[in-house]
Amino acid sequence: xxxIRHISLLTLLLTLCFALAGQEPSHRQNDQDSALRRLFPxxxxxxxxxxxxxxxxxxxxxxRVIEALQNEISQRxxxxxxxxxxxxxxxxxxxxxxxxxxxxxxxxxxxxxQNQISRQEYELFDDLEDIGRFNSDSVRFTxxxxxxxxxxxxxxxxxxxxxxxxxxxxxxxxxxxxKNVPKMKRxxxxxxxYFPIFEEILAKYDMPLELKYMSIIESALNPVARSxxxxxxxxQFMYKTGRQYGLKINSFVDERLDVxxxxxxxxxxxxxxxxxxxxxxxxISSYNCGPGNVNxxxxxxxxxxxxxxxxxxxxxxxxxxxxxxxxxxxxTYYREYGIQPNPSPMPAHTDTFVIHRNLHFGQISDxxxxxxxxxxxxxxxxxxxxxxxxxxPQILKLPYQYTNSFLDCQDTLYTHLADSLLSPQILxxxxxxxxxxxxxxxxxxxxxxxxxxxxxLGRIASRYHVSVRQIMNWNHLRSNNIRVGQVLTIYQGGxxxxxxxxxxxxxxxxxxxxxxxxxTVYTVRSGDSLFKxxxxxxxxxxxxxxxxxxxxxxxxxxxxxxxxx
Length: 565
What we know:
Elements: H1 2-20, H2 29-39, H3 43-48, H4 52-91, H5 107-115, H6 128-132, H7 147-156, H8 167-178, H9 181-204, H10 214-219, H11 239-244, H12 259-277, H13 280-289, H14 291-301, H15 306-309, H16 315-318, H17 320-333, E1 350-355, E2 358-360, H18 361-368, H19 372-378, E3 386-388, E4 394-399, H20 403-408, H21 410-413, H22 418-421, H23 424-432, E5 446-450, H24 457-464, H25 468-474, E6 487-491, E7 519-523, H26 530-537, H27 541-548, E8 559-563
């Protein structure tokens, strides 16, 4: 009987060791059985031997197994630490309050603020800022659907994430399925285009296809979404994390905005996170707040399951996994709520071309006929409307109905308007960072950065992907010297465009700006390009650019001076 008790003790200790190693016993049953077989080749024979010698052999074998498992734990911790160090290099350099409700790119900031839910729809909030401070631990939504029905539907979803039905999960199920039907209609229509792309990538890495719903929480399926702390794209990658997962980010291209490449990077991140935590809920949480914060919560809770660490997670991350389930629920049962998807704004089919020379969206739009906004939607990674084919092969996506037109104009496409749209001056402006990104609103996000101990301008510039000279110019610094506590203004995306008085004069030989008063003011409309405007008024693109001291990037609502003939 002693030997039998030792077998039970061994099983218990093995289970404990596997739990400490971050592996669920149920996932490692074969490993346990194998270890027991190695220790006890014949349990029947062992049970017949009750002598001290047999008992000592069992204990010695147990000690050897424990020692081996300790080595395995140490090795797994080393792997975990490597990933944490890799991914947290980005988060560790952010201010300590980076995961406050005002700054974190979470579900509610993206869902409420980005989609502009009206005050009338949620009378419990005083204003839109209060909506952004929604607290899932205190606010409770109500529904006419019985709890028993919600529980049964949740069970039928057969999700790879097991979550109990509780008030928090119920809250997000109601939020997505009932509280903003117009936006859910839009998400459903966008999902017809984006979800098949995500599913193909997830399947390539043998990942659960349901992870595609994370993109709803991250960006509401907005491929050019930008958070307050600099995360970008439909999968909301920070700069350093994106680079660590192979995304190209330079003056011309930001692959965080490339739907396929960003999804591929997100799948690889999630695979790494699951290998570290051994639990999908924890892996999903780490995508929002970083693996370091999940590890801290695990250490404080003393457990490795989501609901045990829930109180110890950053407040914004607590709702992330329940929101994930809520979005998955609404996307599964939207018909039961009478929700009909909007017509899809995305093309049903696209064709892909490899570009080997510099090409501007304006050239494509003018000769092929595709709307420039549609080009930007499908090729958002080219942040200045320029495809830098001279740097290497680049991908261009076009709606399939424009394929023949694109092929027909190959002989003239690359030279059309090249002198104005791809002039050395424009390319130099993009490369130097003085030309703001498309849609940056005069330089993108404005960040107020408080200098910390150990900071220097080069480190800060690298963190926000700008140059030291830009930071000095924006803050009127005469030297590189900065002090702890000093607040610096940083414009992500290149900074505001130079004022007219600061712009460089036109070079001799070029067209001259019109004299004061000899121009017409034109308000740019959606779909406009400088070429179209120049043709309308009988002037050249360069004349408009010289008079307005601008690049070829224009946006709807912008005022332009058009020289009179």
